[in-house]
Amino acid sequence: MPTFITAAIVSLCAILVTGQQISYNGRFPRVSNGAAFPQRFSWAASSIYVPFQDAQNVTIAFSRVQGTGPSQFEIRVDSHLVESATSLTTKPQNVTVTLAGSGTHSLAITKITEAALGEAQVDGVWLDKGSFGPMRSSGLGRRMEIIGASIMNGYGNLGNDQGCQPSYQAEDAVVAVGPLVANHFGAKFGLIAWTGAGILRKGVEVRPENANEQPLEKQGPTIPELYSRADAGDPNSSFDHSQFTPQVVLIEAGGNDFSNGTKPPSNWGAEYKRFLRQVRSNAPEADIVVLGLPVDITRPIRGEASAQMYAQAVQQQVQELKAENFQKLHLLRLPASVMQDSTLGCNGHPTANTHMNMAAIVQQFVANITAWGPTGTETSFLYHN
Ligand SMILES: *[C@@H]1O[C@H](CO)[C@@H](O)[C@H](O)[C@H]1NC(C)=O
Ligand SMILES: *[C@@H]1O[C@H](CO)[C@@H](O)[C@H](O)[C@H]1NC(C)=O
Ligand SMILES: *[C@@H]1O[C@H](CO)[C@@H](O)[C@H](O)[C@H]1NC(C)=O
Ligand SMILES: *[C@@H]1O[C@H](CO)[C@@H](O)[C@H](O)[C@H]1NC(C)=O
Ligand SMILES: *[C@@H]1O[C@H](CO)[C@@H](O)[C@H](O)[C@H]1NC(C)=O
Q1: How many angstroms is it from 97 CA to the middle of ligand 2?
Q2: Regarding the domain delimited by 143-370, which CATH topology (the fold level of the hierarchy) does it fall under?
Q3: Could you tell me the CA-to-CA distances from 106 to 79, 82, 225 in Å, in that order?
Q4: What CATH number is given for 14-132 in this structure?
């Protein structure tokens, strides 16, 4: 049901007011009293979808969340990228997209960077004419959860092309392995990841854009702490897992507990297993796929000795869980050939190209265990460039 407010802003015909007119992909703290905005975005690759019709342009108002750094967004209309790399730094910003034609359309607003770098909000969406709605079907009912740290967020994956400073311009989670796989299957997903975080180790701290702002949190979360949050950067937020039960969970977690050849504390294995059991308790039927990254990918980030120790430790915990009859748990080892050359993104992280090669194998594996087929562009809920 479209809702109109015509008086407030003369040049605007329709302004979106209720959250019921929006579809969400990823975790979002909902705005109180069902309003659509201001909608805070924290997680990388999280999107809102707004259906509308018969407008010539659509305008989106963005602003940065105080106490955090900058973010980047992408905007799609009918799954086609119309604005890439909209950067939110210090100032609020309006972005207007001019449309080709009348008829029904879908606007997708996607945050492509992680909360550790910054959070932002959409303060409003409006049309010059036409109306919002009708709601599209909510997709195929496929759901994935993707859990990890920098690699899973696509940290530094654009470094080749964009350089590595500022770091928020070198990260695009939409072309990281997990979202690529979810998009292939038209699955909704949550990407639960934070650079530097381990099972025990805290992630990197948030650095506010203005040095005089207090950061939302002094230290980043561990991965298990992050997993419990509705808003990545808000330690007081809590996610209701019954709202989103994945059929497939993709995990690459704990590498940051191994650095420079030092062993993690002796309770690492127990805590790793405890976390996987927690994930299982929230998704009793899910296939849990632990990504076994080749040492060629982890070595440039944390050195040979740690890369080897981490790979062995993960394999051991998975074996132990299986031995205690933990069902539908898979260790998917990726071959070194996913790195087709020795090119690296930032701080030793994989490039977008390596992510794409990883995704091709993970897709096959997920297809094998779920019998999911790929979606055509016409049915996909997510994005195509
Ligand atoms: C809206 O679209 C029309 C037609 O393309 C264009 O002339 C106008 O300048 C646009 N308005 C804004 C605010 O971009
Ligand atoms: C965005 O557009 C709205 C409506 O015209 C206006 O009130 C607001 O000041 C604009 N914000 C910026 C940053 O231009
Ligand atoms: C979390 O709650 C505590 C205690 O109420 C409060 O002091 C703190 O500011 C809150 N943190 C955030 C990020 O809201
Ligand atoms: C590893 O050690 C080097 C040299 O001391 C240091 O610069 C680097 O930050 C360390 N890496 C990690 C992940 O601790
Ligand atoms: C998926 O199954 C096919 C057919 O059994 C097999 O050839 C292929 O290796 C499997 N792919 C993965 C990634 O496990």
Answers
A1: 14
A2: Rossmann fold (3.40.50)
A3: 8, 12, 34
A4: 2.60.120.260
